[in-house]
Amino acid sequence: MAPRPRELTPDRSARDLFGAEMRRFRERAGMSLESLADVLRYGKSSLARYETAEAMIPPDLPARLDAAFGSDGLFGKLYGLAKHEVHPDQFRRLMKLEAQARVIQEYTGQLMPGLLQTKAYARALFRFHYPKATSEGIEELVTARISRQALLHADPAPHFSLILDEAVLLRPFGTAETMREQLSRLVEEALTPTSIVQVLPFSHGGHALAGGSSKLMTFEDRTQAVWEENSVSGTLFEEKTVVDDRHRTYDLLRACALSPMDTASLIRRKMEELYS
């Protein structure tokens, strides 16, 4: 039995409305996703994600849909609303996209990335962020964060690339033992078949991503998204022009970062100098 299509809520967002109208026109025309993919010359899996509002609509799709369905510019108008919309429940959506990504490229300038945090480091971090939380509440947050890391060990696992600002190594959270354990985790992931860790040294100076973090995700169908975060909020970007710009910035930082081997050597040195 075929799975039921995802329930859409057109009143929730312009993207959901676009997907609902796309499904309605397709079904009214008696077309399957496969047949629509042939007409539009798009991949079926990509169309399924647009129809279920799980991916940002590409700029050329609305005109193709209007031409295929004779919808008199309807999809073009809906796209005009959707592309400027801040998607609701963005963090929940980020978790879903992160789990679907085949390539994850991340820069972080202040904190260890959640995908590589140890339990002790995450616990110390949450105690600073939520000083009034109970011990049980903190442990729930730690468990949720650590559970996300399972995706790095999936089969197949995504390719994970991390650039750390040198400041992350010098800013302790928790005890010296906590930091040694955390830095050891970084060394373990510095160069594996599916992971690369590089440190951006202070000598590089200023750069476009200073002060925040950025996560670039590439999916099976080659679509991409970027999650940018500061100390109080995060934003998900899926427009191609924004994604391309962030990729260029990331590539520049990667070119200036230490190699994985030099990174591992620097991390070991900091472990001895600062947390012995």
TrEMBL record:
N-terminal signal peptide: none
Lineage: Bacteria, Bacillati, Actinomycetota, Actinomycetes, Kitasatosporales
InterPro entries: Cro/C1-type_HTH (IPR001387), DUF5753 (IPR043917), Lambda_DNA-bd_dom_sf (IPR010982)
CDD domains in the record: HTH_XRE (cd00093)
Pfam families assigned to the protein according to its UniProt record, in alphabetical order: DUF5753, HTH_31
Protein name: Helix-turn-helix transcriptional regulator
Organism: Streptomyces hebeiensis
Domain HTH cro/C1-type: 22-74
